[in-house]
Design a protein that fits this description.
Blueprint lengths: L5 E6 L2 H9 L5 E6 L6 E9 L6 E6 L7 H14 L6 E7 L4 E14 L21 E11 L6 E9 L4 E5 L8 E3 L6 H19 L2 H13 L1 E5 L2 H12 L2 H12 L3 E3 L2 E7 H14 L4 H16 L12 E4 L2
Antiparallel strand pairs: 1-5, 2-3, 3-4, 5-6, 6-7, 7-8, 8-9, 8-10, 11-13, 11-14, 12-13
Helix pairs in contact: 1-2, 2-3, 5-6, 6-7, 7-8
């Protein structure tokens, strides 16, 4: 398997999730030597993948490992203890375990996707729910042994109607975990992570109510584009790359409402956010790039504080 390669393993229940976790490699530490010299290089060590024998990274002694099986098992045990027994999802595994991202949904826990009336205005949370048009709640848990990621946990949502995956690491207070790998030992590091994970697990089932409010506010924040060029320019400002900006713009324009005799495109922040999540969920994009797009979509579109940046002004207003 080539470097920077990903594979995807799915699970359909808690037993399969636990089996997947126990099959993950736990990296080990080894001493390193100065190039061309057999003497140990003091203050440095190698983090080695036992499955491949490859060195994942060279680090200083201040770096501590987060063992995959300990980290993910503690999370799985925690959500089971709070009542989540019905679970499904997949693990994205990079370079035989150097990076692991587990994305899960809890089919017994969901919120209604917002519905619209004939005037294309979004109804308040709790109204207009139709069978099958729901958003599953869930979790994304990430660990790495190559410094690509911190040990982290975020809220994960899965929009059933369009099969979009949505990762929220910042807009939902109290439902996130992020810990770098600096500590005197793995034992000390894990003793700090465990209580943070407990707090995260206790908050994850409350994330749906918070997300529903954010979704409703975004859906009622209308953005009016003069034309498609302005829409593409907006996406370019947000996502920075022409390739992904154009793809997201192409999706978003299909969501636009039109008024007879008015050439403008009427969208809202929820439309734009879903265009980005649809792009990452349905097009062939590496997990690393998809994560970058989702972070920008969350912070620069979905966040209540976000303002859609454009090189030229556009009208924005909140629907009454």
């Amino acid at each position: 398997m080539s470097k920077n390669s990903w594979k995807r393993n799915t699970f359909r229940n808690m037993t399969e999730l636990q089996d997947l976790i126990m099959d993950l490699p736990n990296h080990v530490e080894k001493g390193v030597t100065v190039e061309g010299n057999d003497k140990p290089e003091n203050g440095y060590k190698a983090i080695v993948n036992p499955r491949t024998g490859n060195t994942s990274q060279i680090v200083t002694d201040s770096y501590a490992r987060v063992p995959n099986t300990d980290f993910f098992s503690y999370w799985a045990q925690g959500i089971e203890e709070i009542g989540v027994t019905n679970i499904a999802g997949y693990a994205l595994i990079k370079d035989e375990g150097d990076v692991v991202k587990i994305r899960s949904t809890f089919p017994d826990y969901s919120i209604p996707d917002i519905q619209i009336n004939n005037e294309r205005r979004f109804l308040p949370p709790g109204h207009g729910h139709e069978v099958g048009d729901i958003i599953y709640m869930g979790a994304e848990i990430v660990n790495s042994s190559n410094r690509n990621n911190t040990a982290s946990a975020s809220a994960n949502f899965y929009r059933l109607v369009c099969r979009n995956g949505m990762i929220c690491a910042e807009v939902i207070p109290g439902c996130e975990l992020a810990r770098n790998h600096n500590a005197v030992s793995s034992e000390v590091l894990m003793s700090d992570i465990y209580p943070r994970m407990d707090k995260y697990n206790k908050g994850i089932l409350d994330s749906g109510v918070k997300f529903e409010k954010i979704m409703y506010d975004a859906a009622n924040s209308e953005v009016i584009f003069d034309n498609q060029i302005q829409l593409y320019s907006s996406m370019q400002e947000i996502f920075k790359t022409a390739k992904h900006a154009e793809a997201i713009g192409d999706i978003a324009k299909n969501y636009a409402r039109h008024v007879s005799g008015d050439p403008r495109l009427y969208l809202n922040k929820w439309d734009l956010y879903n265009a980005a999540t649809f792009h990452t969920s349905h097009n062939e994009i590496t997990p690393d790039v998809a994560s970058q797009i989702l972070v920008k979509a969350e912070t620069k579109i979905l966040s209540p504080k976000a303002e859609i940046p454009l090189p030229v002004p556009i009208q924005t207003r909140v629907i009454g």
